[in-house]
Amino acid sequence: MFLITRQDESIVEVLELQQLFNPFSQRVLGRLHAGEELQEPEAFLKRDLLFPSGEFLPRCWLNPSYRQS
């Protein structure tokens, strides 16, 4: 799955989808898509990622107590 960063809208390929869907995980393993060379995987804060359309990630992916808010 591809997301973008809030800071500069760089494209991030999410490598571990389970981390993305898990509300108890604050980070997700991903790889920036910049240039022609394959980048090394790194951890990204989920709160700093958006869908390519600019929409925020669902609360159920970010907040473990999303049903109570």
Overview of this protein structure:
This protein is globular. The protein has one domain. The protein is α+β, with helices and mostly antiparallel strands. The chain has a five-stranded antiparallel beta sheet with strand order 4-3-2-1-5. The longest helix has 5 residues. Helices cover 13% and strands 29% of the residues. The chain has two helices and five strands, in the order ββαβββα. Strand 1 and strand 2 form a beta hairpin.
Poorly predicted regions: none
If you average the pLDDT, what whole number results? 94
Largest sheet entry: 5 strands, antiparallel
Which strand order does the major sheet show? 4-3-2-1-5
Kindly provide the radius of gyration, computed on alpha-carbon positions and rounded to a whole number of angstroms: 12 Å
| Residue fraction in strands | 25-35%
Q: Label the overall shape.
A: globular
The sequence of SSEs as H and E is EEHEEEH
Q: How far is the first residue's CA from the last residue's CA?
A: 27 Å
How many beta strands in the DSSP annotation? Answer: 5
